[in-house]
TrEMBL record:
It comes from the Bacteria. It holds the Pfam family HisKA_3. The chain crosses the membrane at residues 7-26, 38-55, 62-78, 84-102, 109-129, 135-154. It is an enzyme of class 2 (transferase). InterPro entries: DUF7134, HATPase_C_sf, Sensor_HK_TwoCompSys, Sig_transdc_His_kin_sub3_dim/P. The keyword Ribosomal protein does not apply. GO terms for molecular function: ATP binding; phosphorelay sensor kinase activity; protein dimerization activity. PANTHER family: NITRATE/NITRITE SENSOR PROTEIN NARX-RELATED, NITRATE_NITRITE SENSOR PROTEIN NARQ. Residues 157-184 form a coiled coil. The keyword Ribosomal protein does not apply. Gene3D superfamilies: 1.20.5.1930, Histidine kinase-like ATPase, C-terminal domain. Residues 3-161 form the DUF7134 domain. This is histidine kinase. It comes from Micromonospora echinaurantiaca.
Length: 387
């Protein structure tokens, strides 16, 4: 029990004690009875005995009730004009709030029987004190209604408290679920970053391999071209190292997030492939706006993979159209393909990865190889993607 609860119980006890003494000082509520005993030291002691058990009403509610009931019954037997049992009403309220929903049936029924037995006991005390008449019957009836109301109020308080506890538990459970979802989202993002690392490294290795081979083959007959190829290898390797460091740092840090690529990065990607020797006819339509992070990365990687496939399995040319619409970004890439299906088979693994990216965002990715041309079309919607 907290310090605040102890102070509340002390305040309630003092208030009930003062109210009970006031009723006795006024010789009861209403018209004073000529047969009533005036308040004296014994009466004060009995009132204290009937009220002080309320100090332990939270720790031992049944004991507190029995103590108030015995003290109140003693006041009635000695003909003190206690017309309203303040201490019993408070004790009954606490008893119902604590034991009314107790899973142990014995304790519940013991509390109910103790409360129900008080009215007959009070009637017997009035009879033993020599009180008779209609006033006694009405007084006992009023007490019965008071006790019933106090029990009902305690039950309602218990139900309300249990409801609050249930809501708090539900809120805590929801918070734990949100935390679990957050951790799952972090794990998913880390997996996505690992895929970015794989794609980036794979692309860089392919470019380095092509340029290193070109440098070796052209070294004797065209030293300048060989030097340009070597410079490209150096540039690609340096940028790849930077990107790998960033992505690996993101994998190590749960709070790190990859910086989304903007539409300008797509132009840079096209220029890089042009430097690598791929002839690209590109058209980028739409406002120069920042995309949602996941859409941006997906668009960048899909275009990167498509251009890599065009360079490796095509005939050295590609047509690219990127359209930034109001609700989605659409990417179309086409390039001449060899007559044999080997080139298409070589693209298959990359297509699976690109389609997975598009599907993850609620988008689509379609491919077709017809009449000597390979075509890819992807649509990545913005809706439902965090920025």
């Amino acid at each position: 029990m907290t310090r605040r609860d102890q102070l509340v119980d002390a305040g309630v006890t003092v208030s009930v004690l003062a109210a009970s003494l006031l009723v006795l000082v006024l010789d009861g509520i209403g018209t004073p009875s000529p047969d009533a005993t005036a308040l004296d030291a014994t009466g004060v002691a009995l009132v204290a005995a009937a009220c002080l058990p309320l100090l332990v009403r939270r720790r031992a509610p049944l004991v507190a009730y029995l103590g108030t009931a015995v003290g109140t019954a003693a006041l009635l037997v000695l003909r003190y004009p206690l017309d309203f049992p303040f201490s019993c009403a408070v004790a009954i309220y606490t008893l119902a709030a604590v034991y009314g929903g107790d899973p142990r049936r014995g304790r519940r029924w013991a509390a109910r029987l103790a409360v129900g037995a008080f009215v007959p006991v009070a009637a017997g005390a009035y009879a033993a004190a020599g009180f008779r008449g209609h006033g006694v019957v009405s007084g006992i009836g009023a007490w019965a209604l008071t006790f019933a109301g106090a029990w009902l109020a305690g039950e309602l308080s218990r139900v309300r408290r249990e409801r609050i506890d249930e809501l708090e538990e539900r809120a805590a459970r929801a918070a734990r679920e949100i935390e679990r979802e957050r951790r799952l989202a972090v794990a998913e993002e880390r997996t996505r970053i690992a895929r970015e690392l794989h794609d980036s490294a794979g692309h860089a290795v392919n470019v380095i391999l092509v340029q290193a081979g070109a440098a070796r083959l052209t070294h004797d007959r065209d030293p300048q071209r060989s030097l340009r190829a070597i410079a490209t290898v150096e540039e690609v390797a340096r940028s790849t190292i930077v990107e790998m460091e960033r992505l690996v740092r993101a994998l190590r840090d749960d709070d790190a997030e990859p910086v989304p690529a903007d539409p300008g990065a797509l132009e840079e990607l096209l220029d890089r492939h042009r430097v690598d020797g791929l002839r690209i006819d590109a058209e980028l339509n739409g406002p120069d706006r920042a995309l949602p992070r996941s859409v941006s990365w997906a668009a960048y990687r899909i275009l990167q993979e498509s251009l890599t496939n065009a360079a490796r399995h095509g005939c050295g040319t590609a047509r690219v159209a990127v359209d930034f619409r109001a609700d989605a970004v659409e990417i179309a890439v086409s390039n001449p393909a060899p007559a044999t299906p080997a080139g298409v088979r070589g693209r298959r693994h990359g297509i699976v990865g690109m389609r997975e990216r598009a599907t993850m965002l609620g988008g689509t990715l379609e491919t077709a190889a017809e009449q000597g041309e390979f075509r890819l079309r992807a649509r990545l919607p913005y809706d439902g993607v965090g920025r």
